[in-house]
Amino acid sequence: MGTQMPDSEHDEHIVENVLRELYDADDTLHAIESVLAMLGAHYNVSRAYIFEDSADGMFTSNTFEWCAQGISPQKSNLQNIAYSFEKGRNTYYSNFDEKNIFQYPASQKLSESEQELIQTQNIHSMLQCAIMEGGRRCGFVGYDDCCGNQTWTDEQMRTLSSVSKLLGLFLIKQRQKEKAPFSEDFFSVLDNSTAFIMLLDIKTFALYYANRTLQKKIPGLQKGAFCYKQLFGRTSPCDRCPVKTLKRTGQSRFVELEWPNEKWILASASTLRSFKNGMVMVTATDITSQKQEEKKLEQTIEKLRDKNAENAIVIKQSGKYILRYDIEKKLAIHYSDSIAWFGLPRMMQDYPDSLFRAGIILPESILDAMQFYQDMQSGVHKSGSVELHVRKAGGTARWFAADYTLALSERKETSFCIITFSDNTEMHEKELAYEKLQKDLKDYITGNRNYQEVDLTDDIVEHRGGLFAKYPPETSGTLSLTDLVRYGCEHFAFVNDRPALFQFFNCSRLIAMFRNGCRKDTMEFRIVTGKGIKWYSVAADMVQYPTSDHVKVFFVFTDIDEQHKEQERLENLATHDSMTHLLNHDVSERHIRGLLVNAGPESISALFMIDVDNFKSVNDTYGHQKGDYVLKKFAGIVSSQFRSSDIVGRFGGDEFIVFVPYAVTEEYVQRKVDLLVKSLKFRIDDISVTGSVGAALVHGSQKTFRELYDEADKALYSAKHAGKSRGLVSDTGSTDSTR
Length: 739
Description:
Structural class: alpha+beta
Strand order of the largest sheet: 4-3-2-9-8-7
Shape: flat
Number of domains: 5
Helix content: 25-40%
Distance between the termini: 106 Å
CATH class of the largest domain: Alpha Beta
Strand content: 25-35%
């Protein structure tokens, strides 16, 4: 079953609405897109579109497209589709009936390639209405259904046929307007030019206009026919066609083309912006006489080359691009096989103007190049040089060093000069990198930064500042980086950082890094000052000297002590209790678990749980501020009773935990419990503070943290239950807190 289209009563105003949309529009192309969207939505199709044929009727392209939601656009895939012809008749248009309507799949006349094209678009059914111009079909408006098989009533086909005629009428009028943007004065100027000028369709190479000079040269030129067929008798565009170059690169280039009967032209193509559908103007001049002169000169050069084969080898091995410039005749002759670098002819007339017209000198070097040739032509300087940014034949931009030397005739007059070009890109890039690095350093160096400049290849310090400005004080001559680092390590580098500093500043290591493509390195280190230890960072940035293979490094030293202190503060907040500055619950437990896992089988460790007696009553009676003060002093006393290597933490509220790893005895634990109970008796104003202690021992890793904690916690509970201000070791009994 096919999908039924909207009832005919809904089509009554379609033609009227389309006419109003097109007639009132300021932008015809936008209005056409709106009409397609309206039609597509109204008739519930998948796509609504327009195809336009090329001027010669050989190709067609999808120029407008509307797609329903979820339907993939096809416009970009349907450009310059070639028609098939049989006995001069367009086979695709044979599918259209006498009313210029084509229905699919009703038609059985489609070729295999046409069937395949429709299937690749997933089209189930299709309706197309031809666009007519001057009694011939020049495109069509179409509607595709990719979800079912639409059926069309006679009334709907009449409506769409009328709409297609309106769309075609306004579209053809718009295209004619686009193709006629110039006044007759413009074409009059072209007709009076001595150059050969024609306007072409950039997509199809179809001829739109030929000026009077070209028509006189080649009578019978036909509008709409392919230029390459009419001018050169070819079946496809010329290999060196300037229009192809323009399409590929977007740039206009002069190219030499050979016409029949040994004639030559110099042609270029440029885009005409006024033509929205892509029209280009091709301009050509007859250079047959120049080519004949070149041929004679070429023969002369071949004779000279035979006589000077040895010189030719020297030129080739020099790796330079060499030419002889006859200043008076404005003629340049290339002596080097490397002319392929630039894609230039071996002989160039009207030199150097022809060189500039060729477009190989990039804009940033034009003024330098003009001055270079002016100096040459004036003869004031017998030699000169310049660095130029040029485009090679393949489009790659390179830097070349150009040098000239004037030669004198027998009358001591300047007659010609020799110009050499050598690829200087690598040197130029080195200089730029070197200059950029120096500029970046100048911008980067601030109050807390200083730098050293070192030739790594010769191990020579060329500049020293900041940290090393006055060290070593007895140095008066050349100083090596090796000696400077040795002095710094011996006199002010933190002892633990010295091995890393020696390795970081090693010249051989840094050069090897640079040769392997790594030009930056960094490290952080500490120095010892009269005020304590300070943190610094050093960044190494390496570059090759522009004029040699030596490697230079810039060491930038930055005072990062404040950043390190802030980092330590933040890390401390994450691991320590903010009130007592002891380790917090999670960190304490994590450290203790790690020590238990790594304990040796013969080692004995101890866990202490310590609690403030009656702390709740302190808070309730004296307030939290006084309670916090009690906790801080209590924590300080606990911490003072143990080594820095022991784990001391606040486990929560008024409860503290201590772990003494590996090197304890039962006697030590008993004494420590007694000492803690005694030390934790103190007064703050009229508050009497005491503490209770519970302890447990473990041999090796025989107990988990939870088992050990439970034993110590039970001992603490027993001590508090026995009267508080007491201590109890789980294995050995209680300690009399009154002692």
